[in-house]
Amino acid sequence: MNITIHVMRAALQHGFKLSYGKSLHNPIYLSILAMVASSPAFAEDLNTEIDLPSVSVTGNPLGVSSDELIVPVTTLNGRELSLKRESTLGDTLDGIPGVSATHFGPNASRPVIRGLDAERVRIMQNGVGVLDASSLSFDHAVTVAPIIVEQVDVIRGPAALLYGGSAVGGVVNAMDNRIPTEQLNSVTGRAETRVGGPDSQNNIAGVVDAGNGLLAIHGDLYSRKTSDLDIPGYAVSKRKSEADGTPRINKGKLINSSADGDGGAIGASLTFDSGYIGASYSGFNSNYGTVAEPDVRIDMQSQRWDIASEFHDLDKLGFGNLINRMKFRLAHTDYEHQELENGEVGTTFKNRGIEGSLEAGHTPIHTGIGNLNGVIGLQFQNTTFEALGEEAFVPSSNTQTKALYIYEELPLNSIDTQKFKLSFGGRTEHTSVDSSDNFIFGPGQTHGFNPTSYAIGGIYTLTANWSLASNLSHNERAPSYFELYANGAHLATGQFEVGNNNFDVERSNGIDAQIRWKDAKNSFSVGTYYTRFSSFLGLLETGNSDAGSGLPIAQFSAFAADFKGFEAEGKFNVASNLDLTLRGDYVHATNRDNGDALPRIAPLRLGAGLHYQKGSFGARLDMLHAFGQNRTAANELETNSYTDVSALISYKLPTKLNMELFAKANNLLNDAIREHASFLKDIAPQGERSVLIGLRTDF
Length: 699
Fold this sequence. Notes:
Elements: H1 2-13, H2 26-38, E1 73-77, H3 78-84, H4 89-93, E2 99-101, E3 111-113, E4 121-125, E5 128-129, E6 151-156, H5 160-163, E7 170-175, E8 187-196, E9 201-211, E10 215-226, E11 229-230, H6 238-244, E12 253-254, E13 259-272, E14 275-289, E15 296-312, E16 323-341, E17 344-362, E18 365-366, E19 371-389, E20 397-413, E21 419-435, E22 446-449, E23 452-461, E24 466-477, H7 481-485, E25 487-490, E26 495-498, E27 506-519, E28 522-545, E29 552-575, E30 578-591, E31 605-614, E32 617-626, E33 642-652, E34 658-666, E35 690-698
Parallel strand pairs: 4-7, 26-29
Antiparallel strand pairs: 1-6, 2-3, 4-5, 6-7, 8-9, 8-35, 9-10, 10-13, 11-12, 13-14, 14-15, 15-16, 16-17, 17-19, 18-19, 19-20, 20-21, 21-22, 21-23, 23-24, 24-27, 25-26, 27-28, 28-29, 29-30, 30-31, 31-32, 32-33, 33-34, 34-35
Helix pairs in contact: 1-2
């Protein structure tokens, strides 16, 4: 605990500002890490890596093992997450089967799951939604720093029962332990620094947790600085230049793609044998170039206050025989960013609000055919969005949501090793979306929606190695404020966007199925899905241009749409200390009203890798091939195929601390990597061949 206090005191003495963070620099971090490393608490030999087993938290209200989850979930944590980290959350997760990214330059990238993004992918931090402006515009960064995150859960497919209609595509939950949840009677932590790469990054982070068995304290700090991205060839693609005459300039450099950011948090909990209660405060700061406009930068700040509590075994503590566990989450976020044009403020975006949930789990109910186990929960959200300035294309608005959900599981055990588990549940909510009076957008409007979602699924264990899982769902989503009220030039997408205030809820039905196999270190899963939208709310070009801005007009419209595809991944121990990994995914999305392809859908991707680990030495070679995408929407250019080959070597240093040095080489073929899911694919490729060196330690 003394070390945590010293770390926080040192940060404050050196002018650390969570709200704006401009006085935080790498030398401070280095001194803090030196303090931690020199502490007597770490004098003992810790040459064995701390590697806890992966347990999915998201979409798992009953706390079962990942193998028993019906929905497909991928969990990244520990060393695997550390070696896969990128500058943004989207890029960190890109390449997971079913997951691509929006890639709006190297500093703003949201995950895309099964071809769905924005308001259909729920991004959360410690189980509560991230309240920023990243779903409004692709040039707005997600306010989650991957370098601090301890674990990321990715649910592929509908998770609307637990998290609302905005989870119809999937959920990404980033967990950082800023509110400690377990009893701790020692000091633990980690530190990491990395330099190099195509953006000449200079990143460093430190995390410390300390406790005396009752009080647990968490502290973390990080800093990130990058230069303009080095790219292979020209920023503008040859296809775009030939299509509209855009000159091919800026060879070898992606202009206005540098970034400078920092942040951190402090949190504390009272921990007990049966649960915890705690709070935290965190700050996120980032200043980066938007890439699409060479003279525009975004200066972003977000402050967040969290409260969380969870108690289990309540029935044993004399609280009755019906409820045996309770969980509470609450977060207040104050978000703001300014778009600076040649250093002058052009537009300011603000999003302030509160979101929380209260969940109760009941004791198992004996039904005669199995023990029914489940939860009932309440969720609420109240957010106010404001856009002020010359590029404000949506009016100020307030969104309020109140929801009730229930989720139940019923195991039906049979003979031998065969067993079947049934899951079912439903969610009902009320959402109001109100705009304010505005002399540009007109008088304020009020809209109310009552989405209802429900699902039934099951997992059937064939043998000790084989299982089948499937899920049927009906999902409804209330329109967002910008889908209803947008009316202005959106320069990030190069369109004049027009909302539709006549929208009803978005509706879809889906089916998802997987076959899974696991035997010791070997495993694979193959899944397929089909989602049918009777009313998909999408942005379609009208063929007309706005007289004032000259931009093409795009109208939010409701139409029928289909999304279908497959995902596969496997890991096989092919020799002593050598593993083979395989992966692949494909999405096919169609506007059923006219038969056209939907825009920005990633193509077929296939990948393979070899991972070697023996003693202190490790090596990896990974390849991902994305096929060309020639199934395009109207006015959308095709995208060439690419092959991304990367390599990594690591070595655990013979020191008392558990320290690992690693070097990572990206894009070894120096291919021009342009992601079809990106609005900027034809003006902003990914980085050139490069090497990044890093040092990580945990204790």
